[in-house]
Each structure stands twice: as structure tokens, then as C-alpha cells.
Amino acid sequence: MAKSRNNLLGVGGQRKKLSRAEQNGAGQSRGADRDSAEARRQDLLKKMRERSQGAADTSEE
């Protein structure tokens, strides 16, 4: 470690590396794709829970 206090290299943190698509402004659609994928996952989980709950209800009778 350097004793000098005026060498502040790396103090400000690191910047996120941007892909070419993100640099050209296509980065916003990527976030929307993630949101839609998350919505599909949640919908699928909901359907699976309903099916498993329905199967449990019919087996109790």
C-alpha cells in the first residue's frame, strides 16, 4: 500500500461495463424483457400451485 494520500486511484468505485447494445440505447428493452420473463414465471408458479392444490383437494374426498 502506498503511503501517499494523494494517490486516489480506485476510490470512486467501478463503473458498470456497458455492452454495445446498451451503449446504443437498447439497454432499456432488456430490462423490460426481464420484467416480462418474471411475470411469466410468476404466472406459471401460480398455475402450478393451483393445480397442486386442486389435486390435494380431490385426493381428500
How would the blueprint of this fold be written?
Blueprint: H1 20-23, H2 27-60
Structural notes for this entry:
- The protein is 62% helix and 0% strand.
- The chain is built from 2 helices and no strands.
- The protein has helices at 20-23, 27-60.
- It is mostly helical and 61 residues long.
- The radius of gyration is 25 Å and the shape is elongated.
Provide the structure class.
mainly alpha
Order of helices and strands: HH
- Please give the number of β-strands: 0
Count of individual helical segments: 2
Q: Please give the radius of gyration in angstroms.
A: 25 Å
Rounded to the nearest angstrom, the distance between the terminal CA atoms is 72 Å
Described by strand count, sense and barrel closure, the largest sheet is: none
Shape: elongated
Poorly predicted runs of 5 or more residues: none
Mean pLDDT: 76
